[in-house]
Amino acid sequence: MIDMNESKVPDWITRGKTISQLIKELKTFENQNLMVEISVDGGATKKPISLVGKEDGVCVLLNCESEE
Question: What is the pTM of this model?
């Protein structure tokens, strides 16, 4: 039986990427000096990546700007 309330969100949106997949994709950019920013709202707002860390077994991209 198919759950009609099941989300229609494509797998690639929630699956995420490994470090090696991300590096491979970033290497395709011709200009390797572009600044990298991150968005969690579809690009409406973007923040620079301040730090890259490891937490609970995953790589985490952090923005350290205050929300003042």
Answer: 0.72
